[in-house]
Amino acid sequence: MAENEYHHDRLREAFQSSLDAVDLKGIFRQAGSADEWEEAAARVPYLPVDYSLAMMDYQLSYWNGNARPTSDLSLVLYHDNRPCALWPLSVSQEKESELRIGSSGGALRPPLFIAQLAAKTVKSLTTKSLAALNRFCLDNGISAWEGAESFIDASGLSDWHDKSMQLGAVATLRHELFVDLTRSMAEIKAGFRKSYKALITSGGKLWNVRLLTQADAAIWEEFRCLHLSVAGRATRSLDSWGAQHQAISTGGAFFVYLRDETGRMVGGGLFHVTRDECEYAVGAYDRNLFDKPLGHVVQYHAIEEMKRRNIRWYKLGPRFYPADVPLPSQKELSIADFKQGFASHTFPLFCLRYNVQ
């Protein structure tokens, strides 16, 4: 058995032991639970992109290809012998002897429960999930976990948030940008920053806009090479690019791209999707054409595609502010300002930190 497979199996066995200790049943998705994951996903009230298999596979590929070995421990939780919640979990090797627990290599996400599950049951399963997490951390030398809760089209804070705070977690506030896609396209466009409307119109005349919704290795490789040219270096592994191409082929993502009058690709953006949410994942645009409307056109046509799919919310990404901690870079502030020109809503992103005890 390869060393990384042994490491993954050991971590899975350790987390299984923590589940057993608190009488919580779960099946790891890499142990043949893809069908169960999709069954539970079909029953949640709102399915964020962060809980989609396509996004999880991409993120795991990204971290494993960028010198942070990450094991997937994602679970489908059970109640009364039926799938009742999705819990994306991962364990990353931060340093030689230091582990970090999270979701898909990033901040820890809470279990996402199916609709019409009794409130009492949700509270009980949340308590057990936190107990299992705490036990696993104590047994494996993890001194703290850091989590995040994004908007999921619901009112109020979750039981996970409340119970974590009762246990002693500390919450900090960040922000994320969204577009309400339940409005008409005319209403959505009316909410754009004034200068964007003219840029979208003029850009639509400059570029040939294309949409990719199925596998096409040649087009995807063309975009990867454009990204490489713009970045000046390879920023991530070929496997991670392959995972995103796979997401397109399975319907977990789509790609909007632009060609000039010669047929050359000059820009594009990839968007991960579920039935309820779309998230902007990666974009690249010819640096020699930065005075031309590129990203504006891609965003607009992507939103049109989201509308065609009856998606409810478009998650543009983080909204950084100058006084945020840690201090955002000027590039991050600039990108956030660009995205806000499309956004209809700014929602809180609650970040929790719990020192394990």
Protein structure class: alpha+beta
Helix-strand topology string: HEHHEEEEEEHEHEHHEHHEEEHEHE
Query: What percent of the residues sit in helical stretches (DSSP H or I)?
Result: 25-40%
Strand content: 25-35%
**Distance, first to last CA:** 34 Å
Mean model confidence by pLDDT: 95
How many structural domains can be distinguished in the coordinates? 2
**Name of the top-level CATH class of the largest domain:** Alpha Beta
| Beta strands, count | 15
* CATH architecture tag of the largest domain: 3-Layer(aba) Sandwich
What is the overall shape?
A: globular
CATH topology grouping of the largest domain = Aminopeptidase
Structure description:
This protein is α+β, with helices and mostly antiparallel strands and 357 residues long. The protein folds into two domains: 3-174 and 349-355, Gcn5-related N-acetyltransferase (GNAT) (Aminopeptidase), CATH 3.40.630; 183-311, Aminopeptidase (3-Layer(aba) Sandwich), CATH 3.40.630. Helix content is 39%, strand content 26%. It has eleven helices and 15 strands. The strands form three sheets. The protein has an eight-stranded mixed beta sheet with strand order 8-15-9-14-13-12-11-10, sandwiched between helices. The longest helix has 21 residues, at 119-139. The two termini are 34 Å apart. The mean pLDDT is 95.
